[in-house]
């Protein structure tokens, strides 16, 4: 089943090619201009500047072609210039770019909400609100949960990432770089945020079952906060920035069941995992959980900025008219892009495509891990669909202390980049390489990228 589910035609040649110096002279020139005007607090993982991108390829200003295993952080699942998305955007900008849905509404917003009601888990009555960024979606899910429950506490998890605005920084677990560094802190942070342990099978005492990990979190919530004070539990069904952590089976259903019993709003943050990324419309689908509210962004609109919350009608409608919104939320061009991107996902069956990518990548990486042996730097290979990761440890510690190995992780990512593969790292300990290819990448290009990655891992091992 390693054949592609669809035959695509690509605008750009799907081939890796590094010519001459790296970074090239034009990228170096842009880097020099950037240093004079762009704030130092904004960092880029890649030192080259983009001229074009399509399918699984990013072309830089010096004519180098890189294989894209990042999708701009899980955004361009349908490709960076999906013809259907491009056409829908062109069509919409020819009519109107903005009127503000809170002033003079339009159909695209409603059509996106209809689609979200259809695609998100559960067949209950649903309502949606559209925004621009993932962080904004998370903030608004919390706003809704607080009004609907009359409670204030929000429970978030170890290794969580929910964004960089004030409330979402507080919800995010990792301090550096998101909340503070030796240079200073972005705080103070919002009150009434409580952190409880995640289920992280690789770093857990052996055999801690999902239900037991959920019980550990629930006990902490009941003893330290009190269920009656909790407005919402907020969780990524598969954690993204924290390290592509897939909780033990049974963890999410047990939490969801507890939340339901206690009148706590269960919010699934699917900003990174949603929209075919994991081989299902939502990561929640893998364990059959039906969240009260889902937050979405990244993959939703083929690269245009759009985010959404979709949830139970009784919760969303508890908010007074005028209580939710924003100038740009549900921008008509972004809505047109989302409708086209979702249609592309359906027509090309990108859920099946993500599962095929999983099969190809997991097969290769598991064979490599086996060959390098239990004492190698590969601690674990994990993930679902096209949201896959390798966690690296110090050689010889995989079975014992699992000492994180961020140096090898960085060396591998750097070696891949020099060879023409854009690869992202993540993880609380900076020791995870994550693979987030566009779902429309060809099998040949994916295989070539894996050759490069495999060589880099062997070199570091
Ligand atoms: C990226 C991300 C966010 C924040 O989205 P932005 O669009 O960057 O604000 C929130 N939650 C998760 C799970 C994410 O991966």
Entry keywords:
461 residues; alpha/beta; Aspartate Aminotransferase, domain 2; 7-stranded mixed sheet; 4-stranded mixed sheet; 13 helices; 17 strands; 16% strand; binds pyridoxal-5'-phosphate
What does this 3D model show about the protein?
It comes from Arthrobacter mangrovi. The structure is a single chain. This protein is of the alpha/beta class. The chain folds into 2 domains: 3-68 and 349-460, Aspartate Aminotransferase, domain 1 (Alpha-Beta Complex); 86-347, Aspartate Aminotransferase, domain 2, CATH 3.40.640.10. Helix content is 36%, strand content 16%. It is built from 13 helices and 17 strands. It has helices at 25-37, 71-74, 83-93, 107-119, 134-149, 166-171, 210-224, 251-262, 313-316, 332-347, 350-372, 406-419, 443-460; strands at 50-54, 57-60, 65-68, 126-131, 153-157, 180-181, 184-185, 193-196, 230-235, 265-269, 293-296, 307-312, 378-384, 387-392, 421-422, 424-426, 432-435. The chain has a 7-stranded mixed sheet, sandwiched between helices. Strands 1-2-3-15 form a 4-stranded mixed sheet. Strand 6 and strand 7 (184-185) form a beta hairpin. It starts with 24 loop residues before the first helix and ends with a helix. Pyridoxal-5'-phosphate is lined by residues 133-135, 138, 161-163, 236, 240-241, 269, 271-272, 297.
What is the compact description of this entry?
The protein has 461 residues and is α/β, with parallel strands linked by helices.
């Amino acid at each position: 089943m390693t054949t592609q589910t669809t035959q695509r035609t690509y605008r750009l040649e799907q081939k890796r090619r590094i010519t001459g110096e790296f970074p090239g002279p034009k990228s170096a020139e842009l880097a020099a201009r950037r240093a004079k005007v762009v704030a130092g607090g904004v960092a880029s993982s890649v030192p080259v500047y983009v001229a074009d991108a399509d399918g699984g390829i990013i072309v830089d200003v010096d004519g180098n072609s890189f294989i894209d295993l990042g999708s701009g952080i899980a955004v361009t699942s349908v490709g960076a210039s999906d013809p259907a998305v491009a056409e829908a955007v062109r069509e919409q900008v020819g009519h109107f770019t903005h009127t503000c849905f809170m002033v003079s509404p339009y159909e695209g917003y409603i059509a996106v909400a209809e689609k979200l009601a259809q695609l998100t888990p559960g067949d209950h009555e649903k309502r949606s609100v559209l925004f621009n960024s993932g962080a904004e979606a998370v903030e608004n899910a919390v706003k809704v949960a607080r009004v609907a429950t009359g409670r204030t506490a929000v429970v978030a998890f170890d290794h969580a990432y929910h964004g960089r605005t004030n409330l979402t920084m507080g919800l995010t677990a990792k301090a550096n770089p998101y909340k503070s560094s030796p240079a200073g802190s972005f705080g103070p942070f919002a009150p009434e945020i409580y952190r409880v342990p995640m289920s992280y099978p690789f770093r857990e005492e052996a055999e801690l079952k999902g239900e037991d990990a959920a019980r550990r979190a629930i006990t902490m919530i009941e003893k330290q906060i009190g269920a009656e004070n909790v407005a919402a539990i907020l969780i990524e069904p598969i954690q993204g920035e924290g390290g592509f952590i897939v909780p033990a089976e049974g963890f999410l259903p047990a939490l969801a069941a507890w939340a339901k019993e206690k009148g706590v709003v269960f919010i699934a943050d699917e900003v990174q995992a949603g929209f075919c990324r994991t081989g299902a419309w939502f990561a929640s689908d893998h364990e059959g959980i039906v969240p009260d509210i889902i937050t979405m962004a990244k993959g939703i609109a083929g690269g245009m900025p759009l985010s959404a919350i979709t949830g139970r009608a009784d919760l969303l409608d508890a908010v007074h008219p005028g209580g939710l919104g924003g100038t740009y939320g549900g921008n008509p061009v972004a809505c047109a892009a989302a409708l086209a991107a979702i249609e592309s996902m359906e027509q090309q069956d990108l859920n099946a495509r993500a599962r095929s990518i999983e099969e190809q990548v997991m097969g290769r990486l598991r064979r490599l891990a086996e060959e390098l042996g239990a004492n190698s730097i590969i601690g674990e290979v994990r993930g679902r669909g096209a949201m896959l990761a390798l966690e690296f440890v110090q050689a010889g510690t995989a079975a014992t202390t699992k000492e994180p190995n961020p140096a090898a992780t960085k060396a591998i990512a750097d070696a891949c980049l020099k060879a023409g593969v854009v690869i992202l790292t993540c993880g609380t300990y900076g020791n995870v390489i994550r693979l987030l290819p566009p779902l429309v990448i060809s099998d040949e290009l994916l295989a070539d990228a894996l050759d490069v990655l495999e060589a880099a891992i062997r070199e570091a091992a």
